[in-house]
Amino acid sequence: MKTKKITLFLSLGLLAAFTAKAQNGQAPVFGGTVGKTLDDSKEWWPEPHKAPAGAPNVLWIILDDVGFGATSTFGGIIKTPNFDTLANNGLRYTNFHTAGICAPTRSALLTGRNHHYVHEGGFSHVTMSAGFPGYDGRIPSDKGTVAEILRENGYNTFAVGKYGLTPDEDATDAGPFDRWPTGKGFDHFFGFLGSATDQYKPDLVEDNAHVTPDGRHLTDQITDKAIFYLTRQHKVAPDKPFFLYYAPGATHSPHQVATEWSDLYKGQFDSGWDDFREKVIARQKQLGIIPAYAKLPERNSRIPAWKSLPDAEKKLYARFMEVYAGYLTYTDHEVGRLINHLKQSGQLDNTLVFVIIGDNGASKEGTVHGVINPKKNSAKLATEEAYLKTNIEDITDIGTPQASTNYPLGWAQAANTPFKYWKQDANSEGGTRNPLIVYYPKGIKDKGTIRTQYGHVIDVLPTTLEYTGIKLPEYIRGIKQDTLQGTSLVYSFDHPEAKSKHVLQHYYIFGSRSIYSDGWKAEAAHHPDNVELGDFKVGQNVPDKSFDDDIWELYNLNEDFNERIDLAKKYPEKLKELKAVFEAQAQKNNLYPFIDWYDVFHQRIHKNYKK
């Protein structure tokens, strides 16, 4: 009997020791005594790490390709009632920023560090990565993710939807899996590894293997799976907190949604994108989302005035926006399903929720006339007139499972109201400013109010750690951890008047770049007239453009928040000072070498160039 008891104790002890080692990342120092026999020995068990008492659950929600002025929550016309409810009972951050495109934003969000610093200057795709520290698309192990950190501190960790940070060559069922979500701290994952996928025929993965989708819309599937994970965990360990990363592919192209959603907006965009912008900026002022002095930037020169368009084009473009609006409202509905589950299960009051409405500004990738069937539409490589004619003929395909829809440029600028430019333009607020909602029933006192403190996606992780009372581990799985680069926003939760603590931030995507310093911003576009990477035709030479020829602009965002008045000529010394600050940040964060991705994309795709 004594032997069996000792064996049981030894088994439990080994389990506890292994658990402690896995959580600490370092082998624990034995605190007992080892004699020659059990009688002259003293047993010792390392204490397993647990979350702080009463630690909240944590839910991060990040949408894809949503402009600042799209949702009703931030003054837009598109109805998002569930986001409205969260914001009306939480905080709206109106001066929050992303990296300007999806993978860089997500790598910065998950690690609390700048995207080049964690090697995600472009993407993890073969065609958009390069063999340099800032661009190889492989997040180093010394820059642990939020999932790794929280799991080390007693949380269950789940992710559903878009991941986007697994290198292409690792993304098969043969692995290796250390750069899949389960290799970066998530207990379970259900979603897709790439940057975009078909919503009805997704490239779907569960944990470490591809699985067959069931034919329903992907957002429906990921919401069900998230609820399943949470239900199972709560049943087995109701006192153990969870971290859920909910990242739908919406509203990235392809815009696909059931007609019951898109038909909610029948005829509501017939007045066009110019009228949309006017209505939205008025609503934003009324809600206090933007300053009362705000004025709209000029319509982009590539976008025609709505009144000048023929009726057939108006009908086509309005249908694009009906589908997009339905897609966004449907996504809000699915988030509502998740929130309602937490409420019904009694977990919502102790759940800290962050909602980032878009990983960048609205997408310009739909080109001037929109995209419906890019594989079918070889007319794109012929004439603009033929391309437009084909789109008009295919209008009923917009938003359907058989199409690969993306709305035209005019709606991208409208959805980005009140800012200039769009996704990929890291020089502009239109590319990088996205709404943030913070919701926590037990902790947010000043409910329904606005915060204007400067923030960036690298701030969400340190905010989460400070509020949950968790420190960054010194080691994760034996790897000594680098410091975080973000600034916690907790100081602003109860103090709307507090000065911004995040006062310096650089941006760089595909050559466009900028530097923000305590209200001032210097910026340079690299290919300001290009709509998208794929806009170049086969055989066409990409225009040579030296980075030294890029024109820098200067703005005082304290007085001109949406970059309407260029002060570069008025304050040349200030511009020189900020350019020097940018240079220092570029050296520190692996921004060099600058890479003209338009040229790289042209070489690797259009000329079948292989690495």
UniProtKB/TrEMBL annotation:
<keyword id="KW-0378">Hydrolase</keyword>
<dbReference type="InterPro" id="IPR024607">
    <property type="entry name" value="Sulfatase_CS"/>
</dbReference>
<protein>
    <submittedName>
        <fullName>Arylsulfatase</fullName>
        <ecNumber>3.1.6.-</ecNumber>
    </submittedName>
</protein>
<comment type="similarity">
    <text>Belongs to the sulfatase family.</text>
</comment>
<dbReference type="InterPro" id="IPR000917">
    <property type="entry name" value="Sulfatase_N"/>
</dbReference>
<keyword id="KW-0732">Signal</keyword>
<dbReference type="InterPro" id="IPR017850">
    <property type="entry name" value="Alkaline_phosphatase_core_sf"/>
</dbReference>
<dbReference type="InterPro" id="IPR050738">
    <property type="entry name" value="Sulfatase"/>
</dbReference>
<feature type="domain" description="Sulfatase N-terminal">
    <location>
        <begin position="56"/>
        <end position="470"/>
    </location>
</feature>
<keyword id="KW-0479">Metal-binding</keyword>
<dbReference type="Pfam" id="PF00884">
    <property type="entry name" value="Sulfatase"/>
</dbReference>
<dbReference type="GO" id="GO:0016787">
    <property type="term" value="F:hydrolase activity"/>
</dbReference>
<keyword id="KW-0106">Calcium</keyword>
<feature type="signal peptide">
    <location>
        <begin position="1"/>
        <end position="22"/>
    </location>
</feature>
